[in-house]
Design brief:
- By secondary structure, the chain is an all-alpha fold.
- The longest helix has 22 residues, at about 1-25.
- The chain has a two-stranded antiparallel sheet.
- The protein has helices at about 1-25, 50-65, 70-85, 95-100, 115-130, 135-150, 170-175, 185-190, 195-205, 230-240, 265-270, 275-285, 290-295, 300-310, 340-345, 350-360, 370-385, 400-405, 410-430, 435-450; strands spanning about 210-215, 250.
- Helix 11 (about 265-270) packs across helix 13 (about 290-295).
- The two termini are about 50 Å apart.
- The chain is globular and about 55 Å long.
- It has three domains: about 30-175, Peroxidase, domain 1 (Orthogonal Bundle); about 180-305, Peroxidase, domain 2; about 335-455, no CATH class.
- It binds protoporphyrin IX containing FE and 2-acetamido-2-deoxy-beta-D-glucopyranose (5 copies).
- One 2-acetamido-2-deoxy-beta-D-glucopyranose binds near residues 94, 97, 330, 331 and 338.
- One 2-acetamido-2-deoxy-beta-D-glucopyranose binds near residues 103 and 106.
- InterPro entries: Haem_peroxidase, Haem_peroxidase_sf, Peroxidase_pln, Peroxidases_AS, Peroxidases_heam-ligand_BS, Secretory_peroxidase.
- Its cofactor is heme b; Ca(2+).
- Keywords: Disulfide bond, Heme, Iron, Metal-binding, Oxidoreductase, Peroxidase, Signal.
- This is peroxidase.
């Protein structure tokens, strides 16, 4: 008995050793991280998109080299996304396409960075297909914004899905604290999302980078000057914002406006916080000592910031089969007219190859919908090796059925989902004369045996050749 026990213990110890070895790969992971919610995971895209994080980081390095100010934009985007109905990328939904959106509510007046997110989405989907959610891209972009401007690097749990619905204007106003709020208001508002005072002070440290418009703080200057504000600081701000409604902007952290560091807390100790919501953290007795501790110890700030960010990044996330993976971060898939085109574009691993097949048969394709259908089919077959299993189970060939009656099923879902979507679209838009399964069957055959003419009828029942890889 001793032997197996010893062996088990050895395994346990060595695996502990290994996991602790990996967990220090990022500097701040040694700190206790908050529990991750079920459905999210640290390795979510390990198989389906192993490069997602390196693609995003590489691209953002490029973007920030041009304009480091964008880092702040992306960090704030994630904050707004998560605070209003959860980190579900609802903040990205384009109002003009599908009704009122978070972008149109007043606190979002100045959100920026949407294009960067959509560009990242395009890069990631080009590499992996439509598997990574916009919400995860936003969370990773926020992390990289922190890191690439000098802050801590940390792991982000992944697996968020994109929301289907907009946050109303009211929900947005209710969930985002105002810069005019005092610390006790902010503390109780954030407590409803399970943030403690340390989290609140750490998260506010996001204001160590970025800019603000005059309107967010001029009521501290006019008509009477806020007495908790340093005189010289106030005088300079009056220069930037000569009137209450000036449209100018200024930096949030005067000491190091583009660097993610702990200087924001030094600002607060010098009464140079820009918003009431910032400065009052140093006035309030529950948060004052936390501000001081971060001002004197950047390592401590980084550690607490990471904990709070990982918490924030998991607020009311959608996981599993809820929500969707948007093909365009600005619109729900259901409202996305070029959706078919983008499915085609993104599902393709070997884009050029698939399109050359499409081109070959273009002349025989009766209308744009069957073209889309065909294209999607070819493309998803290339990816999922499901080429000649047919569209619907009843249409599967006897040969396929007899060859692998059960084996067929595991192959079906990815291909089938895309195809049934196409079938639905075709039925809705053009109900009269398109027999989708017939056409797909036909093209199955053409794909397996190119020499068979397209006019030889449906190939269903005569699959041959091996799956295309
Ligand atoms: C605690 C409550 C918070 C309030 C009241 C607040 C308020 C604001 C306001 C009013 C602005 C300026 C908008 C403008 O006038 O252009 C701003 C900017 C910003 N906020 Fe917050 N915020 C809060 C929390 C956070 C959190 C938790 C983060 C991230 C961790 C964050 C990150 C940022 C960043 C990076 C900017 C600069 C954006 C840019 O340069 O485009 N804020 N915030
Ligand atoms: C904070 O603001 C709220 C709402 O405006 C107010 O009721 C409260 O008295 C303020 N607290 C402090 C300590 O100033
Ligand atoms: C905007 O702020 C700058 C200083 O940052 C100042 O020089 C300029 O005059 C301001 N512009 C307006 C229109 O007030
Ligand atoms: C700063 O904080 C870190 C992290 O909590 C801690 O290990 C370190 O001892 C602190 N440094 C000082 C000088 O207090
Ligand atoms: C995404 O959707 C928006 C809004 O409909 C549109 O303006 C934009 O061109 C779309 N982007 C792509 C890449 O299709
Ligand atoms: C930049 C931007 O989108 N600004 C809009 C934000 O929302 C207000 C309405 O609340 C619009 O007036 C702004 O044009």
């Amino acid at each position: 008995m001793a032997k197996p026990t010893f062996f088990t213990a050895f395994l346990l110890i060595s695996s502990l050793y290994i996991s602790s070895y990996f967990s220090v790969s990022k500097a701040y992971n040694s700190a206790p991280s908050p529990p991750i919610v079920s459905g999210l995971s640290w390795t979510f895209y390990q198989k389906s998109c192993p490069k997602v994080e390196s693609i995003i980081r590489k691209q953002l390095k490029k973007v920030f080299k041009e304009d480091i100010g964008q880092a702040a934009a992306l960090l704030r985007l994630h904050f707004h996304d998560c605070f209003v109905q959860g980190c579900d990328a609802s903040v990205l939904l384009d109002g003009s396409a599908s009704g009122p959106s978070e972008q149109d509510a007043p606190p979002n007046l100045t959100l920026r960075g949407f294009k960067i997110i959509n560009d990242l989405r395009a890069l990631v989907h080009k590499a992996c297909g439509r598997v990574v959610s916009c919400a995860d891209i936003v969370a990773l972009a926020a992390r990289d914004s922190v890191y690439l401007s000098g802050g801590p690097d940390y792991d982000v749990p992944l697996g968020r899905r994109d929301g289907l619905s907009f946050a109303t204007r009211d929900a947005t106003l209710q969930n985002l604290p105002a810069p005019f709020d005092n610390a006790s208001t902010i503390l109780s508002s954030l407590a409803t999302k399970k943030f403690d005072p340390t989290d609140v002070v750490a998260l506010s440290g996001g204001h160590t980078i970025g800019i603000s418009h005059c309107s967010s703080f001029t009521r501290r200057l006019y008509p009477t000057q806020d007495r908790s504000m340093d005189q010289t600081f106030a005088k300079n701000l009056k220069g930037v914002c000569p009137t209450q409604d000036s449209s100018n902007t200024t930096v949030l952290d005067i000491r190091s406006p583009n660097k993610f560091d702990n200087k924001y807390y030094v600002d607060l100790m010098n009464r140079q916080g820009l918003f009431t919501s910032d400065q009052d953290l140093y006035t309030n007795s529950r948060t004052r000592s936390i501000v001081t501790s971060f001002a004197v110890n950047q390592t401590l700030f980084f550690e607490k910031f990471v904990v709070a960010m990982v918490k924030m990044s998991q607020l009311s996330v959608l996981t599993g089969k809820t929500g969707e993976i948007r093909a365009n971060c600005s619109v729900r898939n259901a409202n996305n007219m070029p959706f078919l085109a983008s499915v085609v574009e993104e599902e393709v691993g070997e884009k050029a190859r698939a399109f050359s097949v499409v081109r070959r048969y273009r002349g025989t394709i009766v209308n744009p919908f069957s073209l889309a259908c065909f294209t999607v089919h070819v493309v998803s077959c290339c990816r999922h090796h499901c080429c000649y299993y047919g569209l619907v189970p009843s249409q599967r060939s006897p040969q396929v059925r007899s060859r692998s009656p059960t084996l067929v099923e595991p192959f079906l879902p990815p291909c089938f989902r895309v195809l049934s979507l196409v079938a639905t679209v075709v039925r809705v838009v053009n109900p009269s004369n398109i027999d989708v399964s017939h056409q797909v069957g036909l093209f199955d055959h053409a794909w397996g045996e190119p020499r068979v003419g397209l006019d030889s009828g449906p190939a269903d029942g005569s699959p041959s050749g091996s799956p295309v890889s």
